[in-house]
């Protein structure tokens, strides 16, 4: 048996965590998946989390496209620096408040598929070699892809677990109130 290379691990971890994320969401009845929870956290429902991931996929795709065209992509986004990531993430949340849960699911599934195709289009050497592409500076493609796929999905899983738990607890307390009456 051969050991998996970085590209294979990246693809496998991304698919596994993406699937796990949707298993959490699908554990909630469809009519309750749009519920907003009371929290101090930025993301208050599944849609907020999914659109956050979607927007970061879109930024990655822009960085990639601009970088591969020979330009130096502005990262993370025009008007923002890495040290101002919190306001950027708040702006992302605000930008998608009119998106429905079904739209969010479709958008994220499509962007995930596009990013997986980008990864698949490269050799392991192209993905794992630092400075292989000028636009990645001292890093490699793996760092960019991992941060915006499986590592980000791990973050999203924890957020969605908390949202699902809150929805279920709210449902349980409502059921208890019905029994008491």
UniProtKB/TrEMBL annotation:
This is DinB superfamily protein. Pfam families: DUF1706. InterPro entries: DinB/YfiT-like, DUF1706. It comes from the Bacteria.
